[in-house]
Design goal:
This protein is an alpha/beta fold and 176 residues long. The chain has helices at 20-31, 44-51, 58-77, 91-96, 113-121, 130-139, 155-168; strands at 9-13, 35-37, 82-85, 104-110, 147-150.
Length: 176
């Protein structure tokens, strides 16, 4: 656990292909916290849309975000910490998830279209394609607060940067 910190949920945010799952799994392992991938909580209808390259709208995302909010609230209420990988592209989505940068902290994995697109071409995932990536980047509202990390580094370097920043500034409104 981050030194001196009560229960918290770290939400890795950003578009598809930015490394949310890879970084989330590594970070959770280093912290000894459970890892959750928000994709696992999508209703079947959302998964079907994404599989054929149809971007989700706010109406599609709302029930999914509400399910995630319940999970986040349960962790905090039970005094437990967790790492969650979730695109959370809009501020309204982050608000619905209960992001307060104290108990629910965002870590924005920031990268360019070219870098992320190259990474997507190198791996297989049922929802990944350039059309969905472009749609997600168009939808993305970069967070004004929380931690921002350049994804041009190795996963290990990204995790080290996150841990160092959280150790140095575990309080609300983390900005880097």
């Amino acid at each position: 656990m981050v030194k001196g910190q009560r229960a918290m949920v770290l939400i890795l945010i950003g578009p598809m292909g930015c490394g949310k799952t890879t970084i989330g799994e590594l970070l959770a392992a280093r912290l000894g916290w459970p890892f959750l991938d928000a994709d696992d909580f999508h209703p079947a209808e959302n998964k079907a849309k994404m599989r054929v390259g149809i971007a989700l709208n706010d109406e599609d995302r709302r029930p999914w975000l509400e399910i995630l909010r319940v999970r986040i609230d349960d962790f905090i209420k039970n005094g437990e910490s967790a790492v969650l990988a979730c695109s959370a592209l809009k501020q309204a989505y982050r608000d619905l998830l209960g992001v307060d940068q104290e108990k629910v902290v965002t870590i924005y994995l920031k990268g360019t279209f070219d870098l992320i697109s190259r990474r997507l071409k190198e791996r297989r995932h049922p929802y990944m394609n350039d059309n969905l990536l472009a749609s997600q980047l168009d939808t993305l509202e970069e967070p004004a607060d929380g931690l921002k990390v350049d994804i041009g580094q190795s996963p290990e370097e990204i995790v080290a940067e996150i841990l160092t920043t959280l150790e140095q500034n575990p309080g609300p409104g983390i900005v880097k």
